[in-house]
Amino acid sequence: MFSSQPRTKVLSHARFRLAGPDERILSGNIGRFWSSAREDLARRLEKDAPHVFERIKKALSVSDWETAVKDMGAALGDIPPSPWPVSGVLFWLRSAESYFSSGFEKTSTKAARIRAMLG
User: Fold this and answer.
1) CA 97, 101, 103: angle at the middle one, nearest 5?
2) Whether 59 contacts 65, CB under 8 Å
């Protein structure tokens, strides 16, 4: 009846280019510069995406970008996009912020409880 496979709640695999400061924060060789890039990302998310930041701040402390993206997905309860391009991950995080700040999470939780009762 219902699929047990996880479904993304945001447009996590869209391929968008973000212009301006977002792309500059994490562009180029993020793997080589992750230790400084994560600080910039944390500051930006804390200001612009507080709901996401609270959920993923532990993921920002890992030693490499690929692991960070996987841990972000786990913290957000979503399937993470490929860590490349970085702009896709940034779009995903912005979409997640819209999701969590709009209250859809509460609706989804209630729907999941109803499905479990019916299942």
Assistant:
1) 130
2) no
pTM of the model: 0.69
Q: What is the CA radius of gyration of the chain?
A: 15
User: Which tens digits make up the pLDDT trace of 14-27?
Assistant: 444 455 565 555 55
Whole-angstrom distance, CA of residue 96 vs CA of residue 38 = 18
Q: How far apart are CA 83 and CA 103, in angstroms?
A: 27
* C-alpha triplet 83, 101, 3: angle, nearest 5°: 65
CA atoms in the 13 A half-sphere facing the CB of 60 = 18
Nearest Cα to Cα of residue 42 among 58, 30, 57: 57
In the structure encoding, which two tokens stand for residue 112, read together?
Answer: 């999941």
